[in-house]
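Friendly challenge for the regulars: who can give me the structure tokens for this chain first? No prize, just bragging rights.
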Amino acid sequence: MNDDHSTEQSNQLIQFDGREQAKSLALQLTQQAQREICFFGNNLDPILFDNIEFVDCISEFARRSDKTTVKFLVHSTQANIQNGHRLLPLIQRLTSSINLHITAKQHQGLTQMFMLVDNIAYFYYPNSLRYQGRACFYDPSDVRDLKKTFSSMWDQSSRDIMTRRLNI
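First reply, four minutes later:
Bragging rights claimed.
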């Protein structure tokens, strides 16, 4: 997203359908982030997040300030571990600013995927297996509703022990 976009353009609802469009929007949202990124989904989505551009962007964001926070809330990281997801080493190194939690049992059946940025921007699709949904770069109202859902699930989740770094 370019800085020269007006607020009117920024608050337009963007419908997307396809992996490349979803990947591009996820990166644009991450580039826009100033304070916080929250992600909820089945796993650390390999299409959206297992690429150098995204990992570099998250790394820069997380190191920018001690006030920046990234929260990944997923059902499982087993496939991510098996496939060597690029985000995992970064998450293990930057434990003070990047947190990875596993959802509680009562949320394991949820199929939607969303990402929230700074309480103003979001990316959402109802079925994590289909890259079809909506995004908006400025919609505090919709983000507030999704953030309530995220916060409730986060409070009931637990740290992912499968990806915790062992200092041996």
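The radius of gyration is 15 Å. The CA atoms of residues 97 and 135 lie 25 Å apart. Your move, everyone else.
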